[in-house]
Automatic annotation (TrEMBL), chain A:
Homodimer. InterPro entries: Ade_phspho_trans (IPR005764), Adenine_PRTase (IPR050120), PRTase-like (IPR029057), PRTase_dom (IPR000836). This is adenine phosphoribosyltransferase. Belongs to the purine/pyrimidine phosphoribosyltransferase family. GO terms for cellular component: cytosol. Keywords: Cytoplasm, Glycosyltransferase, Purine salvage, Transferase.
Length: 183, 241
């Protein structure tokens, strides 16, 4: 039986204690999960990356897609370590070349995620990385982008999950690997 | 005009004649690494940006780092982005070339490892791609420098000029401590406004800037001049237009 949560690894607790929770950001009632404090601890940051690399290095992953902007902090180190290309998924108008986009819902209104045409090829095996999964809207948009160009999304990887928001159910059946839950 | 849509798995089309990536991997004596200059470069970068006394340290003119040409050729130039007249230096194609991306990080890591650097500061968002791998490899913390209202909690901010108007970058209070030694990473230096603001932010809290490091420089925009005493290390230069 595979476990998606690395709950027995002793490094996990060290990472969890480094995450800073900031109340009422960006607005009242939200307990914001701040991972910048993990980045300030070289051991905790290294452990975070190592845990993902150990999981994915033998899975023939050819693409790591990172969601702007905090996915850019974790995706590239994983990509470098497992020998995959890194593909940034960005807000509109940031990528300079020809792009495709996928819309997703926000609490109020919509937003878009874009990817460069040609960055990912049919048959690529992809990992999607972000710091946190909340409602799963952004990750779902990322999966759609990758599948539209014929890539296979192997898994989504996040440092933190907010399980009460049920984002895991919005991943089109793709598995989620996360390190830390926040309830 | 070169086609915007490139085939990623083939060699990128050669840049148009008016635009050329000059290949240079330059070391500055204060870090005490051998200095390499491209024998084909038309401009010699003035080492005098640094006022350290070891300027006279031997610079081995043994040719450029063999990894640089591949890094340079993996960068895609997109004309007229974000607006007409700008030749945008697109590093996303470098990130698709696993060897070029690894080599880019390795060159920076070789330069900064073992130099007592405890902080790698990276400017949002493309600095987030290059900074963390360097930080991890040299055992330093990574400090993101972000646009306003992105960082939760207490921040300090620094304003800088744009072509029209101003912008700000922010850093968390308490992320760095006085006396720490830092490098600042971004994908590219153009006018130097953002990097200069990053330098000011870190110096305000007592951090020593050992160097600024970018993959690409657009030397015609004179960004280097805005960096004060902080040296600049770059891998590739390009004409701005």
């Amino acid at each position: 039986m595979s476990r998606n949560k690395q709950e027995e690894d002793p490094r996990i607790n060290g990472i969890k204690t480094k995450i800073r929770v900031v109340p009422d950001f960006p607005k009242k009632g939200i307990m914001f999960q701040d991972i910048t404090t993990v980045l300030l601890d070289p051991k905790a940051f290294k452990d975070t990356i190592d845990l993902f690399v150990e999981r994915y290095r033998d899975k023939n992953i050819s693409v790591v897609a990172g969601i702007e902007a905090r996915g850019f902090l974790f995706g590239p180190p994983i990509a470098l370590a497992i020998g995959a290309k890194f593909v940034p998924l960005r807000k509109p108008k940031k990528l300079p070349g020809e792009t495709i986009f996928e819309e997703y819902e926000l609490e109020y209104g919509n937003d878009r995620l874009e990817m460069h045409v040609g960055a990912v090829e049919a048959g690529d095996r992809a990992l999607v990385v972000d710091d946190l999964i909340a409602t799963g809207g952004t990750l779902c948009a990322a999966i759609n982008l990758l599948e539209r160009v014929g890539a296979e999304v192997v898994e989504c990887a996040c440092v933190i999950e907010l399980p009460e928001l049920k984002g895991r159910q919005r991943l089109k059946g793709k598995p989620l690997c996360m390190l830390v839950e926040y309830r | 005009m070169q086609s915007i849509v490139s085939s990623y798995h083939l060699c990128l089309p050669p840049p148009p004649p008016v635009l050329r990536h000059r290949l240079i991997c330059q070391s500055l004596p204060p870090i005490r690494l051998p200095s390499r200059r491209s024998p084909t470069s038309l401009r010699l970068f003035p080492c005098a940006v640094s006022r350290e006394s070891e300027m006279a340290a031997a610079a081995k003119e043994d040719g450029q780092d063999p990894r640089i040409p591949k890094i340079a050729s993996s960068i895609r130039v997109i004309p007229d982005f974000p607006k007409p007249g700008i030749m945008f230096q697109d590093i996303t194609t470098l990130l698709l070339d696993t060897e070029a991306f690894k080599d880019t990080i390795d060159i920076f890591v070789e330069r900064y490892k073992g130099k007592g650097i405890s902080v790698v500061a990276g400017v949002e968002a493309r600095g987030f791609i290059f900074g963390p791998p360097i930080a991890l490899a040299i055992g330093a913390k990574f400090v993101p420098m972000r646009k306003p209202k992105k960082l939760p909690g207490k921040v300090i901010s620094e304003e800088y000029s744009l072509e029209y108007g101003t912008d700000k970058i922010e850093m968390h209070v308490g992320a760095v401590e006085p006396g720490e030694r830092a490098i600042i990473i971004d994908d590219l230096i153009a006018t130097g406004g953002t990097l200069a603001a990053a330098i000011r932010l870190l110096e305000r809290v007592g951090v020593k800037i050992v160097e600024c490091a970018c993959v690409i420089e657009l030397p015609e925009l004179n960004g280097r001049e805005k960096l004060g005493e902080a040296p600049l290390f770059i891998l590739v230069t390009s004409d701005a237009a």
